[in-house]
Amino acid sequence: SKELTPLLAGVAGGITGAIEISITYPTEYVKTVMQLNPEKNKMGATNLVREIMAKNGYFGMYRGYSALLLFSIPKNYVRFGAFQYAQKSVFTKKQRLDNFCCGLLAGAAESTLVVTPQETLKTKLVHDKLQEQPKYRNLFHGIQEIVKENGVSGLYRGYSATLIKQSSNQGVRFLVYTDTAKYLQDYISTKMICDLIAGGFAGFCSVMANNPVDVIKTRLQGVDGAKYSGFMDCGKKILLENGPLGFYSGVGPRLARVILDVALTFSIFGALKRQ
């Protein structure tokens, strides 16, 4: 595969992101609902999907999708561009730890520039629709209201949790993906299949490593996120109210989403790189 410039890596990543989120969003929606609402979490993913389908049809699971679609191209642009930049200019030895560090840097960049506002909007839009009287008419009305109420900083609610989540996500994913793809090359000749499997496994590892942070992030970014004074306070309350398993609420749909997401992302990105 050819070396991509950060710009081309960003473009390829952006296209990848738009395709991926359009396919996987329903699992993201179900995960978010489960993390926001312990009662829904107790129902389990399958029963929750049935309930949503009965009430709102299949597209009921696309609430909040616009926020992720809007940001998916810039998010992947920043992620892959930053990773490529870090590989070329910062961690240049291409050792295993370098992949992890490049991933950390890519995750930090995307969480700061794109993901925190994206996740805040998505979570608030999803949570708002679960209220008796939703107040956001659509994505842009949501942005307007959040900024009006809390200023631009309102879009950065849960930033520390998002930063930890995204940095660890990308650190783990790029490291595991690179190692796994290298290992699989000896057994699988089709590069795209190799990328799919390695990406899926990388996604699995990242979810298991940081689901607790994801739950905290979701709670902080919900419409009632202000009831938590911060990251630690939120974690403490989840532990007290829901026990240790509370940190793994929504893990089923998140695994489904992320395994598919990362598998698709690396395979589509790899295919675009090979063009």
TrEMBL record:
Q: Which GO terms describe its cellular component?
A: mitochondrial membrane
Q: Which UniProt keywords apply?
A: Membrane, Mitochondrion, Repeat, Transmembrane, Transmembrane helix, Transport
Biological processes annotated in GO: mitochondrial citrate transmembrane transport
Membrane disposition: Multi-pass membrane protein
Give a yes or no for keyword Mitochondrion in this entry.
yes
One GO MF annotation is: citrate secondary active transmembrane transporter activity
The protein's location, in the record's own words, is: Mitochondrion membrane
> Gene3D superfamilies, alphabetically?
Mitochondrial carrier domain
- Solcar repeats sit at 4-89, 94-183, 190-275
Q: Which Pfam families match?
A: Mito_carr
Its family remark reads: Belongs to the mitochondrial carrier (TC 2.A.29) family.
Q: What is this protein called?
A: Mitochondrial carrier protein
- Organism of derivation: Strombidium rassoulzadegani
